[in-house]
Amino acid sequence: MPVKEHLPLEPADIKKLRQQLFAMLVFPVVVIGMFLLFISFVFKDFKTSFAGDTVVMYVFIGFCLFFFGIIAYMVGTTAIDLRRGIKHRISGKIMDKLTITSNRRSNSNAIRTTQGTITVNTVLYDKLSVGDGITIFMTQYGNRPISLLTMDQEEFYLV
Question: Where are the transmembrane segments (predicted)?
Fold first, then answer.
């Protein structure tokens, strides 16, 4: 079990999480607008097109509830992390670098440390090497990586 130090969120971390929260709140509005625009082109009159077809309405309502449930969970975890204002610091040494090629369209890069495995973007993956000492800052509730600090004091933001 990794040793986690509890630290307060810094103003830069709070700013990044708020920007991410804003994007999470704007995204459903844009998607709903696009979806309603699509429906308005396909069905000229929304009320009379679906009036007798209850199955289509139930599928549409189910899709909307599922979509909003996922967005609400993401917004909720970010809001809880902002309210608590605590992040975890996990330090370790890179033991291995992994490229996960199970997806044919894109590859996922991960680094395995003495404290666990974390998925990173390609730029960060290329800059780190086996044996580097790193410190990972993660949100408390969402367990989402915020930033990564190398022992050379070079900081990479992951949010």
Answer: 21-43, 55-80
